[in-house]
Amino acid sequence: MSGTLLLGLVTGIGFGFALHRAGFSRCNLVQRGLWLRDFTMLKVMLTAIIVGMIGAHVLAELSLGLVHFKVKPLYVLGVIAGGLIFGIGMALGGYCPGTAVVGLGSGIGEGLMAVLGGLAGALAFIFAYPILKPIFIEKMNFGKLTIPSILGLPVLPTALAFAISLAAMMWWLTRLERKAKTVAQSEFARKAYGLR
Amino acid sequence: MTIQGASVELSRPKAGQRYFSLKLPGWFKWGAMIGLVQIFAMATVGPLGVSTAYPQFVGFVLDRIFPGFAEHQLYLREIGAQIGWEVMLVVGLFLGALLSYGLASQKEGQQVTPVCVLGFEGSRLRRYLRAFLGGFLFIFGARLAGGCTSGHMLSGTTQMALASLIFGASAFSSGVIMAKLFFRNDHTLANKCQMGNKR
After folding, report:
1. CB-hemisphere CA count at 13 Å for A97?
2. In chain B, whose CA is at the least distance from the CA of A67?
3. Do residue A74 and residue B183 have CB atoms under 8 angstroms apart?
C-alpha cells in the first residue's frame, strides 16, 4: 500500500473514532440538532473548527508549504442549490456522508441504508453532471474566495479573530441550551404537579 | 469562556483512583480530537472531505464491471475513478467506528431512537426507506455544492472559504425548516412511532 493510501486510512480511523465517541453513529443526534432540541452536533463541529483553524493557520505561519490548503470554488447557484438538497437529505436520513459510514461501522441498519442511498445518489449525480454543469457550476463562478482574500486582510490574525467569534457563538449556544433545559424542566414540573 | 459540564475534581482518592481528574464534556473532547485529525490531514495530504469518495468508489466498481465506464462519464474524468486517499479515508472511518464500538463498554447499536418523520413513521421498512432517501439526497446535494459536512462545513470553514459559509447557511436553513415542518413530537406520538430497532 502506498504512503498516501496509508495516510488516508490512518486519518480516517482517527476521524471515525472521534465521530463515534461524539455520538454521531446515532442518526437522532443530527435530527435533534436540526430540530433545535440538542446542540451537541453544533458544539462538536464548532470545537473541531476552532481547534483546526488555530492549529492549521499557526502551523502554516511557522513553516510555509507544510500545510495544504484546498479552498473550494464559489459557484453561487450550485452551492446554494446543493446546500438546500443536502439539508433536506441530512434531516431525512439523520446522517451526513461521513457519519453514515460511522453508523454502518457500529452496526446500525440505517447507516447501511444511508450509505447505499449515497452510492445511488452518487451514480445519479454522475449521470446528471453533463446537464447540471453548464447551469449550476459554470454560471456565476467566482473562484476560490476566502474571507481574508476578499477583505485584503492578513490570514493569521483573521483566522484568530474568526476562531474567537466562533467560540463566542458556542458560549451563547451553551447558554441558550441551559435556558431551554430550565424551561423544559419547569414545564415538566408544571404538568406533573398540575400547576398553572 | 466557560465550558458547560466541565469540572475539576480534587478529592481524597480511594484505592486505585487518581488524585486529580479532569472531566471534560464529550462534545469538547471529541470535537477537539476531530480538530487535531483535521490539522494532521492538512499537514500530510489535504483537508478532510468524505463525499468525493462515493462517486469515486461507484466509478471504480462500475469500471471493473463495465470496462470503459469511467472514460465515458464527464464527472469521473474530472475527479478520477480510483481508490485513492479519499476512499481510504472512508474505509478508515468505518474501521475507526468499528474500533470505537468494539472498545465501548456500553453497546449502543440497539438503542437508535430516530425522531419520527411525517410519512415515515412505523415499520422498519419505512425507517430504512427514509435513511436511503436521505442518503441519496445528501450525496447528490453535496456533489452539486462540491462538498459535504466535512469538506465544506469543517474544512471549508477552517480555511474561511466563502463558498463553505454559504453552503453551511443554506444546508442548515433547509434542514431546520424540514425538521420543523415534518418532525413529530416524540412525546405525543411515541406509541405510533417505532422507536429504535427493538421495541
Report:
1. 36
2. B43
3. no
pTM above 0.90, yes or no: no
Which cell numbers hold the place of A77?
A: 447557484
Is the Cβ of A160 closer than 8 Å to some Cβ of chain B? no
Q: What is the pLDDT of residues B101-119, one digit of tens each?
A: 888 776 654 555 667 787 7
How far is residue A63's CA from residue A47's CA, in Å, rounded to a whole number?
24
Task: State the DSSP string of B134-181.
Answer: HHHHHHHHHHHHT--IIIIIIIIHHTTBHHHHHHHHHHHHHHHHHHHH
CA distance B51 to chain A (A): 6
Q: What is the pLDDT of residue B81?
A: 85
**Residues 139 to 168 of B: which have CB under 8 A from any A CB?**
139-168
Please compute the mean of the pLDDT values over residues A132-138 and round it to a whole number: 85
ipTM of the complex: 0.89
Check: CB of residue A54 under 8 Å from CB of residue A162.
no
Residues A68, A71: Cα–Cα separation, whole Å: 10
Task: Evaluate if residue B199 carries a pLDDT over 50.
Answer: no
